[in-house]
Design a protein that fits this description.
Layout lengths: L6 E3 L4 H11 L3 E4 L5 H6 L7 E4 L9 E3 L5 E4 L4 H5 L2 H6 L1 H7 L5 H6 L2 H7 L5 H8 L3 E6 L2 E6 H4 E3 L2 E2 L6 E7 L6 E9 L6 E11 L5 E9 L6 E2 L2 H6 L6 H14 L11 H23 L1
Parallel strand pairs: 1-3, 2-3
Antiparallel strand pairs: 4-5, 5-10, 6-7, 6-10, 8-9, 11-12, 12-13, 13-14
Helix pairs in contact: 7-8, 11-12
The structure holds flavin-adenine dinucleotide.
Amino acid sequence: MKPAKFDYYAPSSLDEALDKLAELGYDGKVLAGGQSLVAAMNFRMARPTALVDLNNVPELSYIKPTEDGGLAIGTMTRVFTVENNAEVAKRFPLLVEVAKYIAHPQIRRRGTFGGAIAHADPAGQLPSIAVLMNMKALIRRKGEERWVDGQDLIIGPFMTVIEPDEMLAELVLNAWPARTGYKYVQVSRQSGGYAQSAVASIVTLDENDKCKDVRMVLMSVGEVPILSQKAGEILIGNTPTREVIAEVAEVVTSEEIDPATDLHATADYRRSITRVLAVRSLTEAFERAK
Ligand SMILES: Cc1cc2nc3c(=O)[nH]c(=O)nc-3n(C[C@H](O)[C@H](O)[C@H](O)COP(=O)(O)OP(=O)(O)OC[C@H]3O[C@@H](n4cnc5c(N)ncnc54)[C@H](O)[C@@H]3O)c2cc1C
């Protein structure tokens, strides 16, 4: 299939890109790595009037430390670059763990960190991790900028709060406290395939090995990444024993997720594997926190 006719612009600076998006308004669409957008255009599921290609805008590709020990990642940084960056590995090893599951190396070399998040695929790993880590998203339009919390960025399947004349410019990842552990687990039918279900957790222990904080996100089991509320209600202030973790998994999968039946799996199967994945993710995250 070939895409429908479209205009193509390749600005060479951020200002030029923002000018073009302002001029095009609802007719404009950002092209990042193209790994999802171009396929959607070829299938005519997306028919943008005009593309604003960000691949020649060098200001949007970087990984920089922030003052509080976190990192700021420019939207056009390739997933492969994030996956292989020493500072990312040191401060946020979860991202390295997750990246290995995203498609294949060829796709990660081209696909971008911000593009994957802005795409907001309910089965995409990075949108879920943006919610889990509550990454701060810098959204820019000509002459303006605003910050949105990662957990407020995604409003539906393939939908975010980013307007057509805006772009996601940067993601800021806040430093983790001491005694923090993490674990991403997923089930997919083949290596590099989209997950039928996935769970990622970030937990922090206090000095008595009680749970001080927990964030758990469930992926591919609802229209958007699901940030569990129940996990915190049950775990915070308690010792994360096998029994407590099993209770969390049971409550979360019976009350918080809404899996669908499709070609790849039934809703019941998804619910069942999510329960197992939740136990694995939390157990390993608490082990790592120690
Ligand atoms: C064979 C194959 C397998 C894949 N498997 C997986 C997988 O297992 N897991 C997974 O998560 N992904 C998977 N992907 C998708 C891949 O990770 C994409 O790279 C990613 O989803 C989109 O990133 P991109 O940079 O290519 O964005 P593009 O395809 O260029 O854009 C995607 C969407 O985001 C918008 N957008 C991009 N950047 C911005 C921005 N800065 N501001 C505002 N809007 C923006 C675009 O307008 C478009 O609507 C797969 C892709 C392929 C081709």
